[in-house]
From TrEMBL:
InterPro entries: Gpn, Gpn3, P-loop_NTPase. Pfam families: ATP_bind_1. The gene is LOC106476738. The keyword GTP-binding applies. This is GPN-loop GTPase 3. Small GTPase required for proper localization of RNA polymerase II (RNAPII). May act at an RNAP assembly step prior to nuclear import. Small GTPase required for proper nuclear import of RNA polymerase II and III (RNAPII and RNAPIII). May act at an RNAP assembly step prior to nuclear import. It comes from the Eukaryota. SUPFAM superfamilies: P-loop containing nucleoside triphosphate hydrolases. Binds to RNA polymerase II (RNAPII).
Length: 173
């Protein structure tokens, strides 16, 4: 995603070593290099095209994430032993994975068992923050994610540059 590219560019500028891992089986392309890509293990199209499974995009994504957790050795091999680097895990954006399913929590537990210290970065579209009902929806979604994952959590407003002046003024209140 664009956000991962931006984080990687910043880390490089401040001379921090950062690696990226794609955990989105539906990703199409990257503007940055990845050290591991879930699509080498399973791709969303694999789950959707399987005649026995017959998953749609959402069910297929859940299946792929479950498959990753069940095949944790693949991820362990990809990550190797290098502990001096920061690793950025680019995860799928389907909110159900974080709010009321346990697959991402299981992934976090797997990373903890591999001695990773994990922190979540939750991106919230700033356009949702200017309307009261959407604001509460966004805040509650972020809170549900925090409670479900039980790890340090950073909430980031994204796309602030796309807001018009009136919306920026509302946001700053």
């Amino acid at each position: 995603s664009t956000y991962c590219k931006t984080i990687i560019e910043h880390a490089t500028a401040v001379q921090r070593s950062i690696l990226a891992v794609n955990l989105d089986p539906a990703a199409e392309h990257f503007d940055y290099e990845v050290m591991a890509d879930i699509r080498e293990l399973i791709h969303l199209d694999d789950a959707m095209e399987d005649e026995e499974l017959r998953f749609g995009p959402n069910g297929g994504l859940v299946f792929c994430m479950e498959y990753l957790v069940e095949n944790s050795e693949w991820l362990k091999e990809q990550l190797g032993e290098d502990s001096d680097d920061y690793i950025l895990f680019d995860c799928p954006g389907q909110i159900e994975l974080y709010t009321h399913m346990n697959v991402m929590r299981r992934l976090v537990n797997m990373l903890h068992s591999m001695d990773f210290q994990v922190c979540a970065v939750f991106l919230l579209d700033s356009q949702f923050m200017i309307d009261a009902s959407k604001f509460f929806s966004g805040v509650m979604t972020a809170l549900a994610t925090m409670v479900n994952l039980e790890i340090p959590h950073i909430n980031v407003l994204s796309k602030v540059d796309l807001l018009d002046r009136q919306s920026l003024k509302q946001l700053s209140r």
